[in-house]
Design goal:
This protein has strands at residues 5-9, 14-18, 21-26, 30-34, 40-44, 53-62, 66-74, 79-86, 100-103, 109-113. By secondary structure, it is mainly beta. It has one domain (5-113): Domain of unknown function (DUF427) (Metal Binding Protein, Guanine Nucleotide Exchange Factor, Chain A). The strands form two sheets. The chain has a seven-stranded antiparallel beta sheet, with no helix packed on it. Strands 3-2-10 form a three-stranded antiparallel beta sheet, with no helix packed on it. The radius of gyration is 14 Å and the shape is globular. The termini are far apart.
Length: 114
């Protein structure tokens, strides 16, 4: 049986910005690939300005990763609702992303390699 999830170190330095402000930069990000979907960059929470994020009640469930908890990003210009997520207790196949957080790329929120 083929693994559905692939997690590997993301090469180089990655940065996440919201509303023009840098939320975090990391040399220790992870790249998660799931099936045919585009890869997602997960940042160590220690590398993110978590004070700019506010936990919400929103949750989703993935059969491969487990239950995701969501965060809204508070920037100077606006609030990005449920724009970031993490798996606080991921399933064994995704255990490497425990303590990491990912971001929805959208107008005003960017994740890029620098």
């Amino acid at each position: 049986m083929t693994k559905h999830i692939t997690i590997r170190p993301a090469e180089g330095t990655w940065v996440v910005r919201a509303g023009g402000a840098v939320l975090g930069e990391s040399h220790d990000a992870l790249e998660l690939s799931e099936g045919e979907m585009p890869f997602v960059i997960y940042f160590p929470k220690a590398d993110i300005a978590m004070a700019m994020l506010d936990a919400t009640d929103h949750k989703t469930s993935c059969p491969h990763k487990g239950e995701a908890s969501y965060f809204s990003i508070m920037s100077k210009s606006r609030t990005y609702i449920n724009a970031a997520w993490s798996y606080e207790d991921p399933k064994p196949e995704a255990a490497a992303i425990k303590g990491y957080i990912a971001f929805y790329v959208q107008d005003g929120v960017m994740v890029e390699q620098v």
